Amino acid sequence: MDATDLEGDQHVDLKGGAALADGQEDNLETSDSTCGARSPGDIVIGVLSPCHTKVESLQERIRPERFKCTEFDLRSFVQALAVIYTIDTINDSGFLPGIRLGYIICDTCSHALKAIQSTLHMLTFNSTLPICDFEGPLVKAIIGARYSEVSSAVARVLGLYMVPQISTTSSVTTLDDKLRFPSFLRTIPSDGHQTRALAQIMVHFNWDWVGVVSGDDSYGRAALQGFLKDAEDVQVCIAFNEVLPHYLDHAEIKQRIHEVADRIQSSNARVVLLVLRAELVEQLFEVMIERGISRTWIASDSWSMSRPLALMKGINVVGDIFGISFITGQNPGFDSFLANLTQGPGAVNRFIDEYKDLRFGCSPELPDPQNANDDFLTHATDLSLTYSEKVATWAIAYALRDLLKCNQTHCPGERDFPPWKLLQELKRVRFTLDNREFFFDDNGNFANGYHLTHWVKRGQKRHIEVIGDQCEEGTYTNVSNLPNCLKCPNGTWSLRGWSKCRQQTEVYFNWNDPFAISLLVVTGIGFLLLLCVLIIFLIGRHSIVFKVAGGKLCFVIMAGLTVSFGGAILFVGRPNDYICRARQTMYGLGFTLSVSCILVKTFRTFLAFLMDGNQQHSLHKLYNPTAIIICCTAIQGLICLFWLIFDSPKVEKSISRQSMNIVLICNEGSNWGFGIMLSYIAVLAAICFVLARKGRKVPQRFNESGYIIFSMVIYLFVWICFTPIYVTKFKQRSAVQASAIVVSNFGIICCHFLSKCYMILCKNKEDISRKAYMNREQLQ
After folding, report:
1. Which domain holds residue 209?
2. According to a count of CB atoms within 10 Å of the terminal CB, is the N or C end of the chain lower?
3. Closest by CA position to 433, among listed 2, 95, 80
4. Helix or strand (DSSP H, E) at 53
């Protein structure tokens, strides 16, 4: 839903005192044009703002006719003006040399259908919607919308064209889903952070028995479920949980409010959390005031800064009120801008015209109300709530500066860029404003914390004061009343809400990890098997079995497997640049050496039983075991050498702001180098497989083809499975590749050596003699 819902601001009397009469409200209609303000520019920013809060006769709408919007909303109007003021500030500062930012502001009228119509209008290009990437829409980015329901609907449309959308108030957690809302960003945290902050407030004040009242909309349901879970985690118990209809014209709204008031009155819980829109809180408080019921109230962001509530009659009766609101800030010069509202050169702003008509139009002493000004807006609204609009506009400006490659004198980049390019820059943007660092996290949110507010009694009204902040990640405070939290020193870090910093923990494929221990045990078994095979083959080196198995090539294969096993061990433990390079090189060269020897064995068998004599004679010229092994391994050596020279593997630190862990992992550098190294081994294995299949009709007693086929199938299957797992499991890459290496090595050991060891040790010498072999060959 939505931050700091102040729809009540729309009822502030623009002439100075009481609320507008019902008859006056009914006459506050805008023109039926889609968008009410615009200013030309080289790059245009769109703004979706609910400058009106209702769509007239919406329930009677039976055909696609124009929307008629009513009830002018001061807060949204001022927020839209904050975007204009920030754009003017950026243009005047020369931040984007040679580039003028323009804007177009369209009214959503607080309704999703109207917002979609306005969005489609802003996306039009030459009266048509963009279809292909090369057709640019009218705007390159959109700021808005205010309410989560509206933002969700708009985000579906903008996600189709990948137009960046930055909301300053919509906080519902479902908008974190980048699959459904790929181009949505926001300058506030999501409600997942808010519910944790609410639970922390309960813990801080030792409130362990609380009631909850929430709305039945998507915001209320999601926030409720999040708070129930977070409250359980910190052992805060829920005394009751009541739900009110979100829509103000619900038939049972008054009855439900009295039922909820009864429940609050009868419960012994002295603390009540209200996750409601401000209008519902006002109706509930009216009942509380009438009954003289006092409790401690906790305000969600939707009403924690509501001035109409703070000024309502009898508000001091209800008890203490605490709440959380989004981090706000100052916008120097904005108050003067509001006190001297004018339309700049080439600009059109019907919203200003309508505001001045409402404010000054009934004064007979002002013949031209459009030229009149005063400081009403600076007192009628909380200007600090427009800080998010300032930050959102500057975020777009910084992203444009990077995209257009701006320097101190000009911006040489292409101005007619597709919006998705700006979206990519926005996701990477990181800038400092008012001594605060801003950037979007992986979910497209700003993790900039919350204010803790207290509604202090002042006469018969309440004054909303900020009494504390929730510390952003990487900051801390050990004293009160600091204007900003302190940054963690000397490489230390803190999580949100911490009062001190700590050293982060390095996370890698550790020796103590159970899987690492298992992998090392299996690798040790592999080394032991190779040693046993070596001893057995040395003993039976004069047997026909040894010669059929490859003779001295077996020792070379074992040497390659030993190097490969050694590379697998280097995947365990704290990595550094040298280990990252050595482990890939050891595996690449070691396993290539083994497969090259197997290729020689396969080629020999293929030639020996090739039926075409001429072809056999021609191919026999290519049979040079030493040259084949050296050439095949040397090619892999060159691949690894070029890889190491141009973009070698190195250690990468993956640091998350929401974690105390620093993940150390080897970045393989050039994906081309890594891919070519693995692909080259796969090509050799595939050649072995093909030749072995062609030579599979060799006399079965001493046939190597079946073992070669099986070992190569194991290798290819393992590495085909390895690729998608390696790509998707970033933190587990070391374990995944080490496992693939060990399994591949065991495939060769089991297929090429164990059966020969069995024949050497367990068969009669006469049965495996050369004479027996020749007799069986003749029988074949």
Report:
1. 191-329+449-504
2. C
3. 95
4. strand 52-55
**Would you tell me how many other CB atoms lie within 10 Å of the CB of residue 141?**
26
- CATH code of the domain covering residue 262: 3.40.50.2300
Query: Among all chains, which residue has been given the structure tokens 């069986």?
Result: 776
Q: How many residues does the chain have?
A: 780
Q: Which of 86, 92, 124, 119 is nearest to 105 (CA)?
A: 119
Give per-residue pLDDT as tens, 559-597. Answer: 999 999 999 999 999 999 999 999 999 999 999 999 999
Give 369's DSSP letter.
G
The overall longest dimension of the chain from CA atoms, in Å, is: 127
**Degrees to nearest 5, angle at CA 178 with 177 and 180:** 75
Contact 300, 322 (CB under 8 A): no
**243 with 277, same domain?**
yes
Statement to judge: residues 633 and 675 lie in one domain:
yes
Helix (H, G, I), strand (E, B) or coil at 102: strand
Contact by Cβ (8 Å): 106, 46? yes
Q: Domain holding 590: CATH number?
A: 1.20.1070
Q: Cβ-count burial of 1 within 10 angstroms (0-12 exposed, 13-18 middle, 19+ buried)?
A: buried
DSSP for residue 573 = S
Closest CA to 735 of 511, 506, 516: 516
The string of pLDDT tens digits covering residues 215-272 is: 887 778 888 888 898 888 888 999 999 999 876 666 788 999 999 999 999 999 999 9
CB 162 within 8 A of CB 423: yes
